[in-house]
Amino acid sequence: MKQDSIAYLLFPLVVIVILGAFGFHYIERWSFIDSFYMTITTLTTVGFGEVHPLSNIGKIFTIALILLGVGVATYSFSRIVGLIVEGDIFRTRRKIKMDKQIAKLENHIIICGFGRLGRIVHRDLSLKHQKTVIIDNSEKVTEDLEANQILAIRGSADDEEVLKSAGILKAKVLLTLLPSDAENVYVALCSRDLNPQIKIVARTENEASESRLKRAGVDEIISPYSLSGNKIVERIMKPSVSNYLELAGKKSGHGLVIEEIFVSPDSKIVGQTLEQSGIRSRTGAIIAAIISSRGEMSFNPRGNDVIESSSTMIVLGHGDVLQKFSEVL
User: Which of the two ends of the chain, N or C, has the fewest CB atoms closer than 10 A to its terminal CB?
Assistant: First the structure.
């Protein structure tokens, strides 16, 4: 429902009330309060009778006010009610549709809190075409998100029913980016209890809270100020390295991309060495590291390193290179 639509409907009604009050005041010489009261009782047709006896001119003015004003008032109020009902129905339908979309999601990311950090994270995840669901307590925030076709749920992220509505049982990552460390701890506890396999990433502004977040089941802890400080230092002390990493981390920028690619168990290169697989020679990709299914990382792997099932490769190259790499896998 748009506010300007209601204002547009109320404007002629306000004009008629003002004209009616001034009309009775100048025709009948009544006080403004009596004139305003007479106008309202006339337009609402409550039938209380005249405040004072009317002159003939006053009676003619009252007839004109009834014919014009009652029609306008009836139309305006009926349209306003219609807009309210229509808006409620539209929001209800949109909410039902959104709930159905969320119920179908798998391996999505839940973002708890849509502040400045949450907005940046959601924007970057959207650029990577990653499905997300946002949980926020603000009605205005969630309404704006829903209006822009962004999956969102209004509620507290430490409420189990809200987390279930966001699809936590099928999500792969939960980001709790709330401003309070205590809130993030409680969200982590609830999330870990509902889904022991989910990866939980939490924000903190206080290093002393990191141990509590770890005990609550958080896998990774983000300190925005520490990250920003480290990036500033890298930019000052190692500008070329910083530019290179920033370029590699972007989806665009001379086509250079750094990605992590999962090696599925049914891939034909499982069990082969890097040299036998021919990945480097056939694709031209730079394999920076291989992370085993156990979490062990091998930097700059050698040609005789064996490619294991369910491992992850950190690959650097242009877009077409990564496409060839995926085809080889």
Answer: N
